[in-house]
Amino acid sequence: MTAVSPSANPAAGAQPGYAARALVASVLGYAMDGFDLLMLGFMLPAISADLHLGPAQAGGLVTWTLVGAVAGGIGFGLLSDRFGRVRVLTWTILLFAVFTGLCALARGYADLLVYRTIAGIGLGGEFGIGMALVAEAWPAHLRARASSYVGLGWQAGVLAAALLTPLLLPLIGWRGMFALGLVPAAVSFFVRRRVEEPALFVAHSERVTQAAREQRPRPLRMLVADARTTRASVGVAVLCSVQNFGYYGLMIWLPAYLSKSFGYTLTKSGLWTAATVGGMAVGIWLFGIAADRFGRRPAFLFYQAGAVVMVIVYAHLTTPFALLVGGAAMGVFVNGMIGGYGALISELYPTAARATAQNVLFNIGRAVGGFGPLAVGALAARFSFGAALAMLASIYVLDILATLLLIPERRGAALD
């Protein structure tokens, strides 16, 4: 039997069940991210009424949460490559939990905005650190599948928000909903006690410790180390930007689109949005399987083409049943690709810069994606929601070009 190197099988030599525990920790962290964002979308009308906020101020709560997430993603990515995946993931979850809980005590717009921004900083680190942790814990032939499970964590959080917020908000109010944000503090305790650092990262840290200080790797420079790496970094940044722009542009406005265009109640809008989220979950799961079997590039290209078609189709649907089924089908392609970024980015960069690459490149996309709701809202005001959604489909053509021209195929590559 041929021996498998630790790089090809990073789980080798780890404690029994380690890969599963690392996956659970990463999924839980990213689930909180998804729950928080959609919960905020549902709560904005209640917060605005209670604190007398205008539309610009209400939108600012979302925008500054994303601004904080971008800053946190970059900062915590660098810290994770320096101090460890598990340790820094714990910091991000605790920061999110504490400042989300403080939102329940906000007396006005100013302090609420501060709490939301700092909570966003905590949220920003969870995606990239979790993806790096899972990539380093799972064997190469299951890497995309395991990464897709982390992506499913976001969908689980969004689905929970779509189903629970309309039910709980009338009972406990927006302050009570924010108070629930303290629950993730227990998750951070689980992460710190039950998950150790990946063997791959520990070995890397030992090598760095033995090296002179002036030889310490500089993760940000490693994203543009040479022409090939720079092209890949630009390509991944484009993919992440389209991903986030399309997702936020769609999900932030979907409840309002269903309500305004078809007269759906808050509960019905939540259920129809949940169908779209359910489709996204199926798409993520299938993406991981396809990417491990056929390769990263073929899977991305198939989903990107599907997104172009389905967003246009959905914009022309009018009956409740068609919107339900069409929303699920659209969700498969629009957000299924989130299942592939963890494996793709992990295979493009070394251990010294892996978490930095995950968080910096994805959060560049999140920064661009923050303009998605603004662009869709502006187009909807000038034309219609249906027209705005149809125009949204055009950005996936850019995605296809970036994949074809800039992204190399690295399926099954050993991590170094």
From TrEMBL:
Source domain of life = Bacteria
Instruction: Please list the GO terms describing molecular function.
Output: carboxylic acid transmembrane transporter activity
Q: Per UniProt, what is the membrane topology?
A: Multi-pass membrane protein
Q: Which of UniProt's keywords are assigned here?
A: Membrane, Transmembrane, Transmembrane helix
- The main location class comes to membrane
Q: Which GO terms describe its cellular component?
A: plasma membrane
What InterPro entries does this protein's entry cite? Answer: MFS (IPR011701), MFS_dom (IPR020846), MFS_trans_sf (IPR036259), Sugar_transporter_CS (IPR005829)
Q: Where is the Major facilitator superfamily (MFS) profile domain?
A: 22-411
Coiled-coil features, chain-numbered ranges: none
Q: Which Pfam families does the entry mention?
A: MFS_1
What transmembrane ranges does the database entry give?
Answer: 27-49, 61-79, 88-107, 113-134, 146-165, 171-191, 232-258, 270-288, 300-317, 323-348, 360-381, 387-407
Q: Where in the cell is it found?
A: Membrane
Which region is the signal sequence? none
The molecule here is called Benzoate transport
Source species of the chain: Paraburkholderia caballeronis
